Each structure stands twice: as structure tokens, then as C-alpha cells.
Amino acid sequence: MSARAKSNEQCFSIDEWFVVALARTIRDREVVFHGFGSPCAQVAMHVARHSHARDMMLVEGATYSINPEPPFIPPTGNDLALEQGASYRMRFEEFFDAAIRGDVDRMFLSGGQIDRYGNTNVTAVGPLERPKVKLGGGGGGCNLAATIGHLSLWTTRHRSGRTLVEHCDFITDMGHRTPAGSRAELGFAGGGPEWLVTELGVFDFDDGGQARLRQLFPDVSVDTVRAATGFEVQVASDLRSVPLPSSAEIAALRAVDPLGVRRSEFAPEELRRTFSHGQSVGCAC
Amino acid sequence: MSARAKSNEQCFSIDEWFVVALARTIRDREVVFHGFGSPCAQVAMHVARHSHARDMMLVEGATYSINPEPPFIPPTGNDLALEQGASYRMRFEEFFDAAIRGDVDRMFLSGGQIDRYGNTNVTAVGPLERPKVKLGGGGGGCNLAATIGHLSLWTTRHRSGRTLVEHCDFITDMGHRTPAGSRAELGFAGGGPEWLVTELGVFDFDDGGQARLRQLFPDVSVDTVRAATGFEVQVASDLRSVPLPSSAEIAALRAVDPLGVRRSEFAPEELRRTFSHGQSVGCAC
Amino acid sequence: MAFHLDTDKLVDLDRAVRSIEDGALVALGGGLSARLPMALVRELIRQGRSGLHVVGSAHSIDVDVLIATGTVTVCEESYVGFEQDLGLAPAYRRAAETGTIEVRESCCVTILTQLRAAEFGLPFLPVRGVKGSDIRRLHPEYREVVCPFTGETLVAVPPLRPDVALIHAPLGDRRGNLHLDQPYVLDERFAAASRNVIATVERVGSAEEVAAAGVTIPAHLVSAVAEVPYGAHPASCYPAYAYDRAHLGEYVRAATAGGSELAEYLDRYLTGQPTEEAYRKLVGADRLAALGQWSESIDAWKELFR
Amino acid sequence: MAFHLDTDKLVDLDRAVRSIEDGALVALGGGLSARLPMALVRELIRQGRSGLHVVGSAHSIDVDVLIATGTVTVCEESYVGFEQDLGLAPAYRRAAETGTIEVRESCCVTILTQLRAAEFGLPFLPVRGVKGSDIRRLHPEYREVVCPFTGETLVAVPPLRPDVALIHAPLGDRRGNLHLDQPYVLDERFAAASRNVIATVERVGSAEEVAAAGVTIPAHLVSAVAEVPYGAHPASCYPAYAYDRAHLGEYVRAATAGGSELAEYLDRYLTGQPTEEAYRKLVGADRLAALGQWSESIDAWKELFR
Description:
The complex is a heterotetramer, with two copies of chain A (285 residues) and two copies of chain C (306 residues).
Chain A: H1 3-9, E1 11-13, H2 14-23, E2 31-34, H3 39-49, E3 57-59, E4 65-66, E5 88-89, H4 92-100, E6 106-110, E7 113-114, E8 120-121, E9 124-125, E10 133-134, H5 141-147, E11 150-155, E12 177-178, E13 181-182, H6 183-186, E14 193-198, E15 201-205, E16 211-216, H7 222-228, E17 234-241, H8 247-256, E18 274-276
Helix pairs in contact in A: 2-3, 2-8, 3-8
Chain C: H1 13-18, E1 25-28, H2 38-46, E2 52-59, H3 61-68, E3 72-82, H4 83-86, E4 87-88, H5 90-98, E5 102-103, H6 108-120, E6 125-127, E7 143-146, E8 153-157, E9 164-172, E10 178-179, H7 187-193, E11 196-204, H8 207-213, E12 224-227, H9 245-257, H10 259-271, H11 276-283, H12 285-291, H13 298-303
Parallel strand pairs in C: 1-2, 1-9, 2-3, 3-5, 9-11, 11-12
Antiparallel strand pairs in C: 3-4, 6-8, 7-8, 9-10
């Protein structure tokens, strides 16, 4: 590695730090899946498998290939690039059956709306009969969310104020509790949302299944989070800064995502946020 | 074909005529299946496909291969010989699903006991708790018999007097009616037994679902059939001789079954019954 | 259902599509922007089909352009869109927001389960996760069933038996045997659950060639086959070609603008081209050939996605 | 269930089988006299395992010899026997007739359905045909369920989750990827529904070799792999070898006779041979090699079956 490249890894942007924060929600030896149209989660899984979770089983989100070594992450999820070097390629139903019977440990999920219980809406904003925005839809999330071991939620649009909401207009994928009841009441074996990572900070979920702010990016204040959040923000007593990414993580990320597809999830103004290992904010490199 | 071979086809034994009679229960363009351990039915299907039913779809009974051209029929049903030349090899579940949803038109079924409604017992003779004879078991027949279009039943042990019985000790595969009800009452889409071919003659089934003698082999009398049958024998008003096999059918049969596995179904004394096209009984060739 | 036993099912695209009736329940093969049955979709539009009820997992331009042309009445896909890259599906979004189509959004697992009910010959099958989701509000046809062993209440879903599944494959033979590369998405299940399968193939090969490549969907499930090179364009059909991201971008921009811009796109690429040959000519041989150059090097491949 | 993520699962046969407990619910792979997991069966007998509950579709010497040695308490196969050729399964028949085993004879479709319930993570699934059959009398655990759409009463069956599936494959790798030739019978379903899969393979190859041949059962479903040449003998394992009809005949004669003749067979081939190597030596290298000569000519193949 050249001195120039090494130096570059001292310096990173919010999309990179964000992806690393997502990657760290994965534990080693977990079986992990991401939905399609989720480049941040997709890149995060590859980063994890090349850093702290080398023995995880990575299942690609639309090719169902296992542990591929893609030469790059393409901007579409069902692409042959995502099967390169895979040890096996599951059939569609082979993956979904495994997930429904409880053999998949973690899934990444996002949403146009997310509420305090981690319920997510990817179906429609506004009234169902005449929605203000018809979103793309949930893919397989509705059933998967019930049975997969843990969910890592994320959004890159927290600051908009429209994403973390008091109530989802439509619950596509269940979090910890919906008007229909809790997971226990519905008989769901999956543990539900464990983390919610946003471009402002990281939430976990308390015993009542409600989101709780645990970590902040260093250029973000609790007030900023409160202002951007539609539900009352609980703050953990040990609130701290999001741990810095390692050089190895940054290197892995840049290697797997040379096209920068992860960046498509962020508003352009967010992408100006850069950091370095030396100073936590406003890297000039 | 040599003159000698041609002459031989004028002369045939009961196993050959019997298999041809079975073959003729198949209509062209039907999808047809035989259970394993059923060499007569197995050979009959190949005979049909090489004579009057060239566009049938033949599904081998334990390899689920479609339209194979086996170099010979081996004495075991799950053998690679039975996949040679197949246009496709179904998975186990692919075949069973097709049959259960109604895409298979005909199945051959036999039984250690068969009653007048075409119910068959391949499970146990005598009381269930302490059977006199534990038979092999029904494979997939119990569900298949409910939904496959038509059943061609057969037995080579009619003369024993123990096979066509008043009541089956155990109903493995349903015919037209069991103590649980009729097919219509149970909601079964399959038409049930259409033919019952024995080494003595051929039965069809009347509107009430009861077996009715339609054809006799020429060396068999109605009294012989009555003596060998545990239920009252209904005789069709147009009772006639089993139609003779054609030379082409005999040739097809001998080509596909050079090992004579079909003969394993018959008692040795039956196999002495030979016939010819010129004279109907007691061929001397 | 009922197997298709004809030994020669090779027909031209026009005839293959003519058998599909207005109002048909149509399953769309492939997924996202891969192996979509676009030639079949274009021919449906050329023939002015209407009232279709489309079902599938996660789809993009196939569904959106059918909606843009007023071909669809009911949309029962699990997702319609262009992922993060190109965003929401413009025509789908507009039609849903203005109520010109009925959205019966479903979940991949539920669709799979309903296809299995048809494939297994069962009158219902249970699913679990729908219970916590508002997806259920979009499906008043769902019922409940109590497990007789555990007492658990599950959601019961009915069989899904499409009138026809539209599938594009890289290779097939005249009998209808199809070879697909993975991911097969729902194509195998569609083929087994649907009354008819109409397939387009990049190339018709001999039965031996298809058998050697591997039969993914057997002939007895397929009712008609048409040979249509680039029949998935602008979706990918590996190993032949990658997707045409620039074309998808052009479509999304036109469809987002709507009005005359969308009409222009539709006229230019669909109604204005009487045949697939004309469509290919319009797109351009050079452009199509470039999509096949993904295999030359990683850099060439990457270049297609910049 | 729960995936098996270890990267090296290669163990010796003794250790592989030691993990199976007395009383286990054991699924037997292969079918009739093809690809039966005979080395695993022999090792179970050598280790004196007892109380097994065996499940499978149509089987022969594997089940019969387990019963002959008193290893089985409950038999839930759809068929046990030697087809028309060699007839009824002697030990199975005797044990059933004298009540020394519990016969829970089932139907292939019902077993498939129960395995699917486990594979799909559902607490029950419906079947239909059992209603007209006395097979139901052998299964008091079955319940009924009414279809909420049609009102039809169906039989509800519970999931079948074997503790372990025993599978023999012609080729596998150290991670546990298995390549099988068709027919796979229930092996794929067993692998997905069972808590553990213990596999023997004719030969361990590289991951690349197995991938090129085609992975039928993926490593994450497999808990242990042992390399055992002729591990299916006297059943077949194509393309390596045909079944040993003479040996099956020898077994059936001894088992039919029972008493000292059966004891002699069991001592000679099973308890008297401490390892598979000793078993192969006893059967004879020439005999085993002859079973591989099926591919030389049709006549050579046929000769094995005369």
C-alpha cells in the first residue's frame, strides 16, 4: 500500500463511517442478509466479512449467493458481479425458507418511515387509498422481519425530519410492537430490531422495545437528533461518540465499493461531512 | 429382423400378453407413472410408448426420469439404466407435486389384496397389531391415488384366491369407496380405478365403482375367475377374449425387457401359459 | 397446469402473445433489472392488451412500462422500483397515488407460499409474518387458520395460479425446455403454478445443447417459445449481456416527467416499433454489443455501471 | 437446523457416528437400493446404537439390517423391501409381525409434506389423500384442518425434524458441500429439515471440483463428512458402481432363514468387521471393482443384473 493510500485512509467521509457503523452491528459467525436496493447495508456486510466477522455467512440480497467476492458492488442488486467467487448460490425459496425457519441471524432493513418501535414503512406515505408518496414496497421483509434473529435498521435520511416518525402511516415490516400486538403476542421467534443506525447517530432498543440513542457522530448534537426525530428521543446514560472506523475497515470498504454506490443513499449535503482519525470533524484532506 | 425372430413373435407367453393388456390401458398423450417394484407396469409403459401411445409422457417409478430409453429394465427401480436417454429428470417432489395437483393422468397400482372397489392393501395381511404378513408398504400411493386422473390396477396373483378379496384387511390406497366414503365425498379429484388387469382377465369398474369382468384370457373360464375371487363377480354383457397382442407390441416388449424382469411377478406355473396368433391357447413354439 | 406435451412449441413473438387475454393474471419472471421478459412486455403493449393483473417479486421497468401504457389494472408485486440508483418507479407511483391501478402489494414469502399452494395442489397454505404487517390490509382475501398442534393462529392464503407466466431465458429448445442461470428468482415456481408459460429465449438450441447446459424449466410446463435476441433489454440477461443502465435512466427521466416526455419515450421505443427487430435497430447494434462486453475485463464491466 | 459454519468438517466415520444418540430420529438418504448410507448404517451397528426411530421413503437393506440387529424401535418408512426381485424385507417383516418394532408406515407425500413443514418453519401443513387410507390409523398424531376458503377438511400433519440425516454422496469437500447425481430422492429435503446432516462421500475433492460438479447439498446444512469408498455398498452409487445384487440376495436368504444363518451374516459382514476397510477387504477388491464395470458396455452392465 502506498504512503498516499495509507494517508487517505486517515481521512473518510460520512458514508464510509456510516457503513462501518452498520458493519459493526454484525457479530462473527452470524448468517446475515440485506434486502435489495440497500447499498449501505450491502457494502457493510462485505466490510464486516473482511474485518471483524471473517466467519460470518454473507447472503447477497437479490442473488442469494453466499460469501461472494464481487469485483465491485454494482448499482443494481441482481447482477452477476454479486455472484463472483460465491461458495454457493441459493435458490430464492432456499433462502426464504431458511430465514422463515430461523436459520438467518440478522437482516438489514430500512424504511421511508421508521417509528420508535422499529416498525418500518416502505409501502406508502400518507393515506393508503390515496398516498402522498407510493414507495417501492417491502420485497420479502414483512415475513422475514418476523423470524430472522435480529434486525439492523438504518436510514440515511434522519435529518430530513420525515423519516423517524411518531407513527408509520403504514407498517410494512414489524419492529417490536404494532397495534396488532408485541412479537411475543404474535408468536414471532425473531428478536426484532437490535440497532438503528442513522447519519446522525446510533440507537439501540430498550427492554420495552423503544429506540434509545447510544452514540452520536461527533459533528451532531443531541438537540439536532431531537429536532430531526418525530418521537421523543430517549438518550442512554452512557451516550458516546460513534467509534472511529479502523484503517482496515476503510480500506476494505473502498476495495469492495469502488463505484461508491453506497453514496447514492445520502443527500448531497451530507456527503460533504468528512472526518479523520486525528481530528474528529472537518477533515481537510 | 430375421425370419426366426419374426416367427417368434407369433408365439408369446402369459407375462407378455399380460403386459400388453396393461399397456393398452394407456391412452396416447397421457402422463403415466408406475410405482417401484412393478416390473409388469414398468415394461407396459415402455411398450405403450413404442406402439399406440407414442406421445405419452412416461415417468419412471423411482428415478422420475421422463421418456427414457433404457437399454434394459433392471431388477431394481432406482437404477441409472432407467435414466438413459431421458428428456428430463424430475426431482422427487417435482413429480409428487405434479401428481397431487392433478397433472398426472394415470398410475399403475397393485396390491397384496384388492377389493371390488379397487381399494388396495400393500401394508399388512391379517390384524394390524399382529399381522400375518407384513407387506412392504405403499410408497407414495396413498396420496397419489386420491388425485391422479385414472388408476390401472393389476395383479398377477388372482388365481391364488387370496388377492381379490371381499374386504382388504388394510386399505393403503383408496379405490372408489372406502368405509370413510366415496371419492366425491372425500373431495378427491382423481377418477380412481379404471381397469383391473389380472392373469385371468380384465375388469373395468361400473358406475357404482365396482369391478366388472370385461375380458378373459382364452384359457380361462368365468368359473375359474369366480373361484379365484373373494367378492361376487359381475360379468359384463359383452364379455370377450382379451385382444391379442400385436407383433409390434411383442417386439417392443422383448426389446425393452431382455432380462425378463416382468416374469418375476408370476408364479412359475403361470409362466407355462403360452399362446400364438394362429391358435389362442397352448402354443408349441 | 396440465402438462404441455406438444413436441414443437416454437412460434413467433406475435403469436405467442396473442394467446394472452385482456384481464389475464400474468406472472412476470426475472427480478429487479435482470432477465425481465421485456420483449413479451413490449409485444403486450404493441397488441394493446389491457386489464392485466400482474404478480411477481421485485420488479422494475417491466411493471412500470406496463402501467405507463395503461395495460395494468391490478399490481400484486412485492416491490416496483429502480433501487437506490434510479429511485422510485414513476408510473407505478403516479398510478398508485392517483388511484388508476389497484395496488395489492404483497410480500415475496407470501407470493411464494401462494404459488406453492397451487404447485402442491392445496386449497390454502399458512404464513406467519403477515400478522404484524399492514400488508394484510391490502389483502382482504386472506383468512386465518389455527394450527391444530400448537394453537397458533396463522394467516391462511389461497393458491395463486397465474393464467400465464412470462419468462425470458438465455437458451431453450423447440420442445420448450429452458435453461436459466441463477438466480432463478420465482421463475421455477411460476412455471409450475401457472396454467401456461410463454417463454422467449436469446437463442434456440438443440435439445442436446439445452440438456448439457441444464434444463431449469422442463418442456412439459411450457406452452410456447419464441426466439428473441436481447429479449430482456434493457434488463440484463447474463451471460449474454449486462443491463442497460443508461436506457433505464432515460426511461425513468421520461416517466418521471410524464406527459409528452413519457409519450415520446413510449412512442419511440414501444408503439413506434412494430417488431423487436425494429426495436433492436433503434437501440443500436453497437450499444447492444457493448452490453455484452462485460466479460472482457473487470474494468469493462465496471464501465457499464458508471 | 441452524447453519453449520465450520470450515473443516472432515472426520473419520467412527467419530461422525459417535455423535448420534440412542433413540435418535434418523432420516436415511437414498432410496430402494441406490445411494443408501450403508457405511453409516454399519457403523451405527458396530457402535451398538439402539432405540432409533428411522424415517424415509422407500428403502431396503439399510432399514432391514438395522432392524435385524435390534437397532430400531420405530420404523416410519413408506416402504421397506427388495421389490419384486428379492421380495419382502425379512427382518422388517418378522419384527412387524412379532411386534418387536413399532411400524408407523407412512406415505412418501406425507413425509415430504412433514419435512417441508420443518423446512418452511411452519407448525403444520395439510395433506389430502390420507383421508381415504388406513395409513391414518397408524398415525394418531395427525389432526384435521378445515380450509378457510373451500371448507374442505384436510389432514394436518406436524413438522418432521430428524435429529440427523445420514447421506451418502459420490463427491464432497471438506467444508461439507455435497454433489449428488439424480435421483436425489428426499436427500435435499432431509438436509434442510434435519438438525444435523452426517455425510459419507466416495471421495473428498477440492471445493472447486465439487462446485464444478454442482453442489446439491450446501455445506451450511452439513455437520460432518467422512470419506468412505464404497460407502453405499451393497447399494449402488453411480457413477462409481452399480448395486451388488448377489450380495443383496445373500442377505435376503440369510435374513429370511433367521436364527444362526442371519447371525452368521451379521457377524461376517458387520459386527465381525471393525472397520469399513475390513468390510471392503472381506467383500473383495475384485468384486467391488466388477460393480464399477457397468459403464464399459451395455452387456457388461446387464451382466451385473442377471
